[in-house]
Amino acid sequence: MTVLRAQGLGKRYKRKEALTGCTLEIEAGHVTGLVGPNGAGKSTLLNIAAGMLEPTTGTIEVCGGVPGSGPEQLAKVGYVAQNTPVYSGLSIEDHLRLGAHLNPGWDASLAEKRIERLGLDPKQPAGRLSGGQRAQLALTIGIAKRPELLLLDEPVAALDPLARREFLQDLMEAVAEHGLSVVMSSHLVNDLERVCDHLVVLVASQVRVIGEVETLLATHHRLSGPRRDLDTLPADQHVVSAKHTDRQTTVLVRTEAPILDPSWTVGQLGLEDLVLEYMSNPTAARPALEVLR
């Protein structure tokens, strides 16, 4: 099942394009990391998927329906915005009561047990919570509505390392227990590597690479050797980036085939290096291979 499908998706604000011609497909059952530079369109994409914005061009389908098209569709999607918004004048229990009123599939037991396990006082006003506690409250509300898809926009960006770790641990427990599909945007690739099994790199609204993290890491290789023309590489080696000195060529290739040329020294990449290569090389040196699923 596809939980998010966009085709030629775009959003314009007067003269400014926030998203242009974005096309991607995300299957159910994944925790997908959405990464890219500032201005790539990540937040705009998530806001459209949540039904908070209407696209200017293109189409989008989320959990089999049009985002924001009615109560039934809204119930399928949970959304935690970048600033993990809560109402400062309302208590934690007020938030849970409001969540129950607004969401027909609300799981009151789940919400109350999470708040108890986190050691939070239900009577405490949200305005007196720490950043990590506000994030956990927002996550609790997002999970307790029992969505099919949970969208998280930079949910840990403002948290300290301990709060980030606790948030991500709780997220993974919720995914395991409730079978959630998740799309989470973040600049913190190391955090994504801990929780995500699927990756989308978005640069200037375009999907530069998409696939399962394990497969992406296994099929990307950094090759170093004597200087050579890239046209001499096998046709099945898609060049992501290349650097040359007078004597040496270093190239990042993506291929499912083994590297057989003995003149190359072959190195593997971590997820952060892989993401940075795609972000810093917005166009490939040779046409891309078909997207790996």
Automatic annotation (TrEMBL):
Molecular-function GO terms, alphabetical: ATP binding; ATP hydrolysis activity
Alphabetical UniProt keywords: ATP-binding, Nucleotide-binding, Transport
Keyword Nucleotide-binding: yes
Superkingdom classification of source: Bacteria
UniProt-listed SUPFAM superfamilies: P-loop containing nucleoside triphosphate hydrolases (SSF52540)
All copies of domain ABC transporter, residue ranges: 4-229
Record keyword ATP-binding present: yes
Name of the protein in its database record: ABC transporter ATP-binding protein
Organism encoding this protein: Amycolatopsis rifamycinica
Organism lineage string: Bacteria, Bacillati, Actinomycetota, Actinomycetes, Pseudonocardiales
